Amino acid sequence: MALSLHRTVDLDQVNNFDAPERLSVFLTSRRMHEEAYHVFYGGHTFRIFPTHWRFFGHKSQSVLSRLPTRYRKALVSLELRLGPGWSNPPTSWRVTDRLALEDMSAVRKLMVFMECDPSHDIFRGFRPARDFFTNFAGNILKEIVCRLPSLEAVQFDGYPSVSRDGPLMKRLTDEVKRSEKKITWGSDISLRSSPQTFEDLHDDSYLSKD
Fold this sequence. Notes:
The chain is of the alpha/beta class. About 30% of the residues lie in helices and about 10% in strands.
C-alpha cells in the first residue's frame, strides 16, 4: 500500500525520508485528503511517548499531541513502549490533557511493549528503588486505559528477558484486569520464569533477536 510505513509511527528522523513522499497524496485534492488520512492514520499504530534519542527528553512532546483533532479521531491502535529511561523517565512521560486520549474514540487496541523489567535483582544498584519503574509504568498504563473511551483490548509483548511472572508484568496486567479490558499476548513475550542471574539475562534464549 502506497501510504504504509510498515512500522510504528513515532517521532523519528527516518520520517524525513519516507513520510513526505507518502503524505504528499494528502495535497492532491480535498477529496483525496479526506480518503487518504483515514487510511494512513487508521492503518498504523502510533506510539504514545517518543523513544528516539533526539526526541527523548523532558521537554519533548508526543506525536499524538501534535496531531489535529480530526487525525486523532482516525487512530485505531496505539503503542506504549516501556523501558527507555527506566532509571530516570522524562517528565514529559505523563498522561495529561495534551495527549487528548479522550478524542481517540476509534482506538480499540493498545499494545504495550516492555524492553526490560528493572525490578529484577540484576538492576540493583542502578535503579532508584526496586518498585520505582514498576509503579511508574503501572500508573501510566492505568491513566491511559482510563482515558481511552472505546478501548477493548491490551496486548502485552516484550523482549524475552521480560517474564510474565515478573513484578512489572503482574502490576500491568492487574491494572488491565481492574479496567475489565481483554488481555492478549504478543509473539515475543517470554513464557519462562524470570532470569535469575546475569548469565541468564544474557543467554541467547532470553535476548531479543532484533
